[in-house]
Amino acid sequence: MEWIQEQPDLAAYLAADEAIDHEHPVVRETADAFWTVTDGDAYAYAEAVFAYVRDAVPHSADSGDPRVSWRASDVLATRNGICYAKSHALAALLRAQGIPAALCYQLLADDDGSNPVVHGLVALRLPGTRSWARVDPRGNKPGVDARFSLDVEQLAFPVRPELGEIDYPRLYAAPHPAVLKALQDSADRPRLWENLPTGL
């Protein structure tokens, strides 16, 4: 699939904003610690922070945590978030060390095609490469086995076109407005479940 940059300038995918707040001390400290451990190797760093966000920040639906986080710094500080929030955290950690990161989305559904919902993940572009690779920091559980791979995608949820599921091709520099609104307008996770976007 051909990915479409929402912003033609790659610098947009290194910028900080209210959700991807990679200048926040919590994000900077985490990024610097992993950069040191990986000896400043961009590939090793990207793989390490992916695994950290995937494994050390539980998806709130799996953990039962009712809190709703949406800023990258809050996700890392509280170790809590759904797919969108965890994607914000991973994008912030990547951008903090100069690795372009985009937010991207899928439309997923139940096994009968009902109840469509937008799912968030990250695309990254390592220095010296000309292509984007998608990774999914959602968090693994029985039946979900997302891995870091730049060659062959291993996402949490490969789409099933026969059920109307979609890989949206656009790479966003900032969270999609529908996603950000759902997160910001929800006082807790049960309310968030009612506000999840059903399409972009």
Can you give a write-up of this model?
The protein has 200 residues and is of the alpha+beta class. The chain has a single domain, classed as C8orf32 fold. Helix content is 34%, strand content 12%. The chain has 7 helices and 6 strands. The protein has helices at residues 25-37, 42-56, 60-63, 72-78, 83-96, 177-184, 189-195; strands at residues 4-5, 101-108, 117-124, 133-135, 166-167, 170-171. The strands form 2 sheets. A 4-stranded antiparallel sheet has the order 4-3-2-5, covered by helices on one side. A two-stranded parallel ribbon has the order 1-6. A hairpin with an 8-residue loop joins strand 3 and strand 4 (133-135). The two termini are 18 Å apart.
Entry keywords:
alpha+beta, four-stranded antiparallel β-sheet, 200 residues, C8orf32 fold
> How many strand segments?
6
Shape from CA axes? globular
The main β sheet shows up as: 4 strands, antiparallel
In angstroms, what is the radius of gyration? 16 Å
Beta percentage is 5-15%
CATH architecture term: Roll
Average pLDDT across residues?
96
The SSE string, one letter per element, is: EHHHHHEEEEEHH
Count of the domains:
1
Q: What structural class is derived from the secondary structure elements? A: alpha+beta
Q: Which bin fits the share of residues in helices? A: 25-40%
What distance lies between the first and last C-alpha atoms, to the nearest angstrom? 18 Å
Extract low-pLDDT stretches.
none
With strands numbered from the N-terminus, the spatial order across the biggest sheet is 4-3-2-5
Please name the CATH topology. Answer: C8orf32 fold
Number of H- or I-type helical stretches: 7
